[in-house]
Protein 1
Amino acid sequence: MSSGTESRRVTIHDVARAAGVSRQTVSRALNDKGEIDDSTKQRVLDAALALRYRPSRFARGLVRQDTISVGLLIPDLLNPFFTEVAAAALEAARARGWHVVVYDTADSAEEELGTLRMVTSQVDAVVGYFTRPEAEIEQVARGLPVVLIDREDGTGRFSSIRIDGRDGVKAAISHLVESGHRRIGMLDHDARTEPSLRHTWFADAMAACGLGEGPVCRADQSVEGGEGALENLLTHHPDVTAVFTFNDIIAIGALRGARRLGRRVPRDLAVIGFDGVRLGTLVEPQLSSVALDIRRLGALAVEQAARLLTGSSPLGPDDLVTLAELRLRESA
């Protein structure tokens, strides 16, 4: 066996690929279900033996379903968006009698890697937000089912829940333009080496409305970060009359920054966030946002992890998309 195979636990996917059958067929063969012919069963058993496949403790039935644990990795528990995702995942797992263990990676790539290494020996599946390369995640996960949230998987190894906010951002910019705004800026994520996908949606929406690319400032993922970034943006571009932000926390900071600068919202400055967290309804004025179905996002992650754990047919890419839509309130 090559060192590449030894670096991680062989999975049911590997056995299915080697035997040229589906995961369900592998499951039936290994559990002696009698629903497949003898030659197919023998081919599966030979492939499993050659790969030294060892079914997970869940698949072998060595633990009860109510002892199953899913590890949820999130960047920042202080951000209410991730808190709401975690709450939805906990609710979905609780309905199955499962447990979710939440890990805060402090939005740090190194912390994420160390947490993932620790988690793999304690849980049956991992879901969450990852920045590390797929090959590295695969090596550390060692065959555990992994569900990525808000990230495309270029390897085909993992399940990936995609967030599609293109139409929602386009609706937001169109609304601002229809309200008379022409100088629209953006407060983007400051921890990315390249502009975020949300910045791409913003730029495309601006172009679709016949506007040039608006000014962009990077913002730390906090209320204070949003406040400081807005002040920076308006210092260099005082003619900006509306801003779209990477997320609602930055937007709430922008609302505070606008007050400090004496700009009335939305008369002097319109603000639209992204995420749709409940906190947006508690600030003054209430925050307009390109809103996600956050409950569905957390539940979908657990649902896909359950399908991967049990060998059921996983949800396809079209079913693993969470759309965002403009939710207008008082800030725009």
Protein 2
Amino acid sequence: MLKNKVAAITGFALLAVLGAANHAMAQDAATQDATTPYPKMAPIEQYLMDRDAEIGLARSAAPDAISHDASIVVLTRHGYETAVEGKNGWVCWVGRGWLAMFDHPEFWNPKVRAAECINPPAARSVLPYAYKRTELILAGHSKQEVIAAIKAAIDKKELPPLEQGTVSYMMSKSSYLTDGGGHNMPHMMFYEAEKDGTAWGANLTNSPVMAVNYWYLSGEDYPQLKAFPPLSVFLIAAEKWSDGTPAPPM
């Protein structure tokens, strides 16, 4: 029933890639409350932004030729809402820390701001999962309740399967993905149902393609989520930020 279903990481695929490389460290941090820097949700005000500033940050995720005519969604106290109606089918937005894997140690980090622009297939089949999770979290549901609600929505086909050709741009200079230094870099991401990364030449010596298979709704602390089929994310670094200025090497 769940074949080809996906709960996509959207703006946090990069966190998943980085997290896979540092999984043991993340596990330790997530399972020790005394050392977890963000053990619970901060006041909602810390996650909100000035509306105009959020629109600007969202647009900066992709070159102006893409983001200028894109729809822009912003976070409110109850979830994401459309601030600007676009013309080209793309959607630009700013993700928060709770869109990372559930056992990520910075899940509740109020500083996270992940600017992203996604193409029409991604807007139709990836973004609904982010909207659903955000609404549940802002309504005060626990992680376990969020997991159960999303699983139920997938079973009822209230959430869509992943479309082919999903593309994400994360090229903003101003994104803040994690407290780890040097984390931000301009890149593009492509989402697919799990496949062998060698088809992309991923993770090979001197290859520009990074790839990871993971469960968005997962984490070692939530083994029941292995019922969800994994997602493959292919990440390719860009040489420039969205404004055209040179970026540091990955």
Protein 3
Amino acid sequence: MATYGGGTRAEGGAAPKAPPRGGTGAAYREVIRRTGAALPVLSFLGRLPVAVIQFGSVLLVSETSGSLGTGGAVACALALGQVTAGPFVGRLADRHGQRPVVLVCAALNAVAIAVCALGALLGPPTPVLLALGALAGATVPGIGPLARARVVPLVRRTGADERLVHTALSLESTMDELSFVVGPALVGLAAVAGHPAYAFGAAAALVAVCGTGFALHPTARAAGAARPAPAPRARGARARLPRQAHVVRVGLACLGVMLGACGAGIAALTEETGAPGQAGLVYAAMGVMSAVTGLAMAAVPERVGLPARWRAATAAAALLSLPLLWTDSLAGLYAVVTVFGAVYAPNLVTGFALTERAVPGHRLAEGMTVAASAFVGGQAVTLAVAGRLAEARGASAAFALGSAAAAVAFAVALCVRPVTPDAGAPPGSGP
């Protein structure tokens, strides 16, 4: 048995601890019992501002500048700022603990969000708006990936079986999906109530209050203490991560491309059918289905290994994306996208689980934030490219790009091999 995150995890032929009785619901209750009921609430509300400002920046800047292209560019700058700074935030959290890093980032992000909204209202030149968007993205505290890096060691610390770990990751991915359903809805309500800038004010308050609460929660210290210290290395030396960690990141980037292309296709098709206002509702239908399947992932038998799960999830994404190429009506779009939404959470749950298995324990926060950045980066870049593609060639062209990305993700998943991490092994060792 090798220690990992302060607990033990089975290796080789060692028998895992029996899962909690009572099925999937009991597994979720057990995860919440170990983390405390407040932590999921704080982490959900703390990550909600990311979804609010990502969607809201398009609406706010488009309204204040009169240009949809400028709104999309600011949203892209915001996402790229998050992608660029996210791994650095994770690295700092690994070195100094989550508490001080999240406290500082939450305060900076609250200010940056407020300044971004104020800048949009004042109508400065586009380069200034892009810089403000990038600043708002770069200061995101990364509560989603850091919550995964915190919860998994806590669950493992008492010798939990792999099913309980997958349950914890399923819960985290479900909260991600719900945040990207609730976030755009809050922006829409703010726009109806008066102005999209109201949503930015709410986002700034949420990250200040709930981000601080997430940082101060007792599990921040417990998770940091559970992580084993790395062996001393020569100055300037940095251990290489296993090949599998990089393979998974490439796969997650492809899935981000798929989501970005699908989003551009949805926006284009709803406009083509004369119902652009339905785009948000179509997103919501897709997100709700993804959240449901994310929760159901905890019921997958442990004997189905992570590589097999990821191959099945990416294959399903490639196959279920094909009907989008021939969808030309709003009713058909709702039906196809709702079914297609079932593939997102299984891919994310499995991708993060593979990352957790591959990276050394003392670099878990960095590994999770880089994995999240790969997904968000693929999505952000594709939104800009696929949007132009959809304008020139129609919605089916954007959907075709997403389907091709899903096929590449499946090819990448075929390269993933089973791995049993050992925190005592030299960092970077692995397949």
